[in-house]
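I hope you will forgive my troubling you with a question about protein structure. The full record is reproduced below for your convenience:

——
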Amino acid sequence: MRVGTGRFAVLLAVLALMFAACSQSTASSAPSSSTAVASEQPSESAASSESASPPPPTPLPANESQAKPGDVTIRWYCCLGTGDAPEQVTVERKVADDFNASHPGIHLQFEGYVYAAAADALSVQLGAGSGPDVVGPVGVGGAERFKGQWLDLQPYIDKAGIDMSQYPESTVKLYNAGGEGQLGIPYAVYPSVLFYKADMFKEAGLKEPPHQWNSTYTMPDGSTRPWDYDTVREIAKILTVDQNGHDATEAEFDPTKIAQWGFEPQRDDLRQTGAYFGAGALLGSDGKTAQMPEPWVAAWKQFYEGIWTDHTSMTGAQFQTTDLNPAGYPFCAGKVAMSTNYLWSTYCLEDKTTGTDWNMAATPAYKGKTTAAFNADTFRILKTSKNPDQAFEVLQYLLANKDLLELYGGTPAIESQQDAHLEKVFGAYSQKPDWKVAKEGINFADVPNFESYTPAYSQTFDIILKYGTKWQTTPGLNLDTEISAMKDEIQAAWDAS
């Protein structure tokens, strides 16, 4: 899982549309300074080198300990998700060396590439028959790029006597939803909540959102409504205010001068935006036909209307503006009253920008069913591992290592460990948010996960990103036509793959 990519992903896609260029699907950060300089000041030999292949990526430094005669070497490959930051690599290398010091007969070798190069490099290794043993941390999307190549862990789980009931059922199902066995053991989870600003609700004369899941909401007139996206849409208009103090329900409201927005959905990826309305998958049951899940279609239409009709959500241009959105998510800047997002988005919640009055509530329901889009990381073993028993011993060690879990910023999937972890995390904030909302939200995870496998996975992501950017930057579109066109384009990519 990669965090904080929303605004950068939109920016990259906008550039792709402007220049009609094909973009890479998993770009997650701005170009490095050296790349920027090179593009501004081409060398005299640039023209002659345009057709040359780019240099191979530089691998991450391996751990220092050396294998002893007779050792079984297990290769740990990083970083299809998080883990590539220099400070993370330092800890990962130490974890590998610590394992080697305490597990005679097995030599754990840490290796890998930075996130931007890791997937392609792993593809090359697998194509050459020289793949690693253990891969991670890796999220659902990173793993689905290599669908069919992961080892079913159930026999090893049974042999080791691992009690899978210690994990929330939703997290266990996440790793066996594809019909290939139990491909992962729950490890680091990132549940969703509705973040909100209590002071904005108070100023608008509104009750705060419910902290109980599958709850109701009391409107200003005293009526009780289901806590769903229809209710959120109504109160978001009241919470959207222009520079003259008029809210979006008033005739005097000026949508060109908005000072505060009522609701921001998670918009890094249209699949995520849709998953908050309900779990679904783009791939039909026949394994070849593209489909648009009905809850996702409803979510996309409300997202689009929220931008261009209700004006309760930012336009794409506003979302990219660093004045309004300096940290990647505008809720962090104190400009938004409500926002659905993952627990990892707390990285940008600071007193000086967000204020000290933010809290967490349950995500709303759609048609009576509540879903909280879900991110999760774990470690997996490749089918091609020549030493799966030793690889599973390594996997168990990595899953149990507290330094790694803290390094990756995840909430422990083991329920008995969650309270202490969340108390520690949120104890650093000056206010005390109701973190138990996030813990309970794990039970509402989207299964199947929105990142589930599709053919032409990277190309599908590019298409989704293109349409998401178009909808955020272009008013007056017919969303039924747009969604149909996106479906056809995805299908064509699959048919050609």
User: Anything to note?
Assistant: The chain has 20 helices and 15 strands. The chain has two domains: 72-190+375-413, 193-373+455-496.
